[in-house]
Amino acid sequence: MNTIPQRLVAALLIAGLAACGGDSKPADPAANKPTVSPDDFRKAQQAYADSVLNQAVTASSVVQKLGAGYEVGSVRLRDTLAALAGKTECFLNGRQADPYLAGTVTFFTFMSVVGTNVIRVQESQWTSQAGNIVNSCLNLAAAKWKLDATFGKPASYITQAQFK
Predict the structure, then answer these.
(1) Does residue 111 contact residue 149 with C-beta atoms inside 8 Å?
(2) pTM of the predicted model, to two decimals?
(3) DSSP label at 148?
(4) Average pLDDT in the 64-86 region?
(5) What is the largest CA-CA distance in the chain?
(6) What CATH number belongs to 58-164?
Protein backbone atom coordinates (compact mmCIF):
# COMPACT_ATOMS: atom_id res chain seq x y z
CA MET A 1 0.00 0.00 0.00
CA ASN A 2 1.50 3.26 -1.17
CA THR A 3 0.66 6.28 1.10
CA ILE A 4 2.20 9.00 -1.09
CA PRO A 5 0.64 9.39 -4.51
CA GLN A 6 3.07 9.03 -7.44
CA ARG A 7 2.16 12.44 -8.82
CA LEU A 8 3.07 14.17 -5.53
CA VAL A 9 6.50 12.46 -5.51
CA ALA A 10 7.12 13.54 -9.10
CA ALA A 11 6.08 17.13 -8.33
CA LEU A 12 8.42 17.26 -5.32
CA LEU A 13 11.33 15.94 -7.41
CA ILE A 14 10.73 18.50 -10.15
CA ALA A 15 10.43 21.32 -7.60
CA GLY A 16 13.67 20.21 -5.93
CA LEU A 17 15.56 20.14 -9.22
CA ALA A 18 14.22 23.53 -10.20
CA ALA A 19 15.36 24.99 -6.85
CA CYS A 20 18.91 23.74 -7.36
CA GLY A 21 19.24 25.84 -10.48
CA GLY A 22 21.52 23.39 -12.17
CA ASP A 23 25.21 23.97 -12.74
CA SER A 24 26.41 27.52 -12.18
CA LYS A 25 29.12 29.26 -14.12
CA PRO A 26 32.47 29.76 -12.41
CA ALA A 27 32.97 33.22 -10.95
CA ASP A 28 34.43 35.80 -13.29
CA PRO A 29 38.01 36.51 -12.13
CA ALA A 30 37.67 40.12 -13.28
CA ALA A 31 34.81 40.61 -10.79
CA ASN A 32 37.21 40.08 -7.87
CA LYS A 33 39.62 42.83 -8.92
CA PRO A 34 39.65 45.87 -6.64
CA THR A 35 37.80 48.85 -7.99
CA VAL A 36 40.46 51.21 -6.60
CA SER A 37 44.18 50.83 -7.15
CA PRO A 38 46.41 50.72 -4.05
CA ASP A 39 47.91 54.09 -4.99
CA ASP A 40 44.47 55.65 -5.35
CA PHE A 41 43.42 54.15 -2.01
CA ARG A 42 46.53 55.56 -0.30
CA LYS A 43 45.88 58.99 -1.82
CA ALA A 44 42.26 58.90 -0.66
CA GLN A 45 43.34 57.95 2.87
CA GLN A 46 45.90 60.77 2.92
CA ALA A 47 43.28 63.24 1.71
CA TYR A 48 40.94 62.07 4.49
CA ALA A 49 43.71 62.39 7.09
CA ASP A 50 44.47 65.92 5.87
CA SER A 51 40.80 66.87 6.13
CA VAL A 52 40.61 65.57 9.72
CA LEU A 53 43.76 67.49 10.66
CA ASN A 54 42.50 70.67 8.97
CA GLN A 55 39.11 70.46 10.71
CA ALA A 56 40.51 69.80 14.18
CA VAL A 57 39.21 72.03 16.91
CA THR A 58 41.85 74.60 17.89
CA ALA A 59 43.35 74.86 21.36
CA SER A 60 41.70 78.26 21.84
CA SER A 61 38.30 76.73 20.96
CA VAL A 62 38.85 74.02 23.57
CA VAL A 63 39.79 76.68 26.15
CA GLN A 64 36.65 78.64 25.28
CA LYS A 65 34.51 75.49 25.59
CA LEU A 66 36.06 74.58 28.97
CA GLY A 67 35.49 78.07 30.32
CA ALA A 68 37.25 80.12 32.97
CA GLY A 69 40.38 78.72 34.54
CA TYR A 70 42.00 77.45 31.33
CA GLU A 71 44.59 79.09 29.10
CA VAL A 72 46.21 78.22 25.79
CA GLY A 73 49.71 76.95 26.55
CA SER A 74 52.79 78.70 25.25
CA VAL A 75 54.50 77.67 22.03
CA ARG A 76 57.36 76.31 24.14
CA LEU A 77 54.99 74.13 26.18
CA ARG A 78 53.20 72.95 23.04
CA ASP A 79 56.42 72.07 21.25
CA THR A 80 57.86 70.31 24.30
CA LEU A 81 54.76 68.15 24.76
CA ALA A 82 54.67 67.36 21.03
CA ALA A 83 58.34 66.34 21.16
CA LEU A 84 57.80 64.16 24.25
CA ALA A 85 54.77 62.53 22.63
CA GLY A 86 56.74 61.96 19.44
CA LYS A 87 59.50 60.15 21.34
CA THR A 88 57.06 57.53 22.63
CA GLU A 89 55.98 54.42 20.74
CA CYS A 90 52.34 55.47 21.12
CA PHE A 91 51.69 56.70 17.59
CA LEU A 92 53.56 53.74 16.11
CA ASN A 93 51.35 51.39 18.15
CA GLY A 94 48.28 53.08 16.72
CA ARG A 95 49.74 52.85 13.22
CA GLN A 96 50.09 49.08 13.62
CA ALA A 97 46.31 48.91 13.95
CA ASP A 98 45.68 51.48 11.19
CA PRO A 99 48.57 52.32 8.86
CA TYR A 100 46.79 55.50 7.72
CA LEU A 101 46.16 56.84 11.24
CA ALA A 102 46.42 60.60 11.72
CA GLY A 103 44.97 63.00 14.25
CA THR A 104 45.17 65.85 16.70
CA VAL A 105 45.63 65.41 20.44
CA THR A 106 44.70 68.15 22.90
CA PHE A 107 46.74 67.98 26.10
CA PHE A 108 45.65 69.32 29.47
CA THR A 109 48.58 70.45 31.62
CA PHE A 110 48.30 71.72 35.17
CA MET A 111 51.25 73.87 36.17
CA SER A 112 51.86 74.47 39.89
CA VAL A 113 54.46 76.81 41.41
CA VAL A 114 57.11 74.07 41.11
CA GLY A 115 56.11 72.69 37.70
CA THR A 116 53.68 70.26 36.16
CA ASN A 117 51.89 67.71 38.25
CA VAL A 118 49.24 66.62 35.72
CA ILE A 119 49.60 66.13 31.97
CA ARG A 120 46.94 64.12 30.14
CA VAL A 121 44.98 63.85 26.90
CA GLN A 122 42.00 66.17 27.23
CA GLU A 123 40.43 65.26 23.89
CA SER A 124 41.45 64.11 20.44
CA GLN A 125 40.33 63.76 16.85
CA TRP A 126 41.58 60.73 14.92
CA THR A 127 40.90 59.26 11.51
CA SER A 128 39.92 55.94 13.13
CA GLN A 129 39.31 54.21 16.44
CA ALA A 130 42.99 53.21 16.48
CA GLY A 131 43.54 56.68 17.95
CA ASN A 132 42.19 55.32 21.25
CA ILE A 133 45.32 53.15 21.45
CA VAL A 134 47.45 56.28 21.09
CA ASN A 135 45.44 58.21 23.69
CA SER A 136 45.78 55.46 26.29
CA CYS A 137 49.49 55.12 25.68
CA LEU A 138 50.04 58.90 25.80
CA ASN A 139 48.20 59.13 29.13
CA LEU A 140 50.47 56.45 30.60
CA ALA A 141 53.58 58.16 29.24
CA ALA A 142 52.47 61.67 30.25
CA ALA A 143 52.05 60.57 33.85
CA LYS A 144 55.87 60.35 33.94
CA TRP A 145 56.61 63.67 32.23
CA LYS A 146 57.69 66.44 34.60
CA LEU A 147 58.27 70.01 33.45
CA ASP A 148 59.57 72.82 35.62
CA ALA A 149 57.81 76.11 36.33
CA THR A 150 59.67 77.93 33.56
CA PHE A 151 56.96 76.70 31.16
CA GLY A 152 54.34 79.00 32.68
CA LYS A 153 52.75 80.47 35.73
CA PRO A 154 50.49 78.26 37.85
CA ALA A 155 47.44 77.56 35.68
CA SER A 156 45.63 74.93 33.62
CA TYR A 157 46.92 74.91 30.05
CA ILE A 158 45.61 73.45 26.82
CA THR A 159 48.02 72.61 23.99
CA GLN A 160 47.79 70.46 20.89
CA ALA A 161 49.99 68.09 18.91
CA GLN A 162 49.29 66.64 15.47
CA PHE A 163 50.27 63.17 14.31
CA LYS A 164 50.46 62.21 10.65
Answers:
(1) yes
(2) 0.74
(3) B
(4) 95
(5) 104
(6) 3.30.2420
